[in-house]
Amino acid sequence: MASVGEALPDRAKAARRQQWWYKAEKKALPYLLLAPLIILLVAFLAFPFVSLFYYGLHKVDLSGLATYSGLRNFVILFNEDRFRQNLVATFIYLLGNLAISVPLAYAAAILISTNRRGVGALRTVFLIPWVLAPIVTAVLFKTLMNPSSGPVTMLLKMILGHPFYLTLTEGGARLFIILHAAWRSFPLMMLLIAAGMTGIPVELYESAKVDGAGVWSQFKYITLPLTRTALFSAVLLISVYTIQDAEGVYALTQGGPAYGTEVTGVRLFKEAFMYFNIGLASAVGIVLILLSMILIIFYLRILGQGERA
Amino acid sequence: MQRTRLLFVWFGVIFITILIIFPVYWGVRTSLVPNANLSIIPRPLTWEHYRALFQAGYMNNIKNSLFVTLGTILVTLPIAVLAGYALARFDFWGKQYSVVILLLPLLPAIAVLVPLILYMRNLGIYNTLYSVILASAVFALPYSTWMIRGFMLSIPREIEEAALIDGCGPFAALFKIAIPLAAPGLIAVAIFTFISAWNNYLFSFAFTTKRALQVVPAALLGFISAWGENYGGMNAGAVVAMLPVLIFFLIFQKWFVQGMLAGSGK
Question: Complex ipTM, two decimals?
Answer without folding.
Answer: 0.90
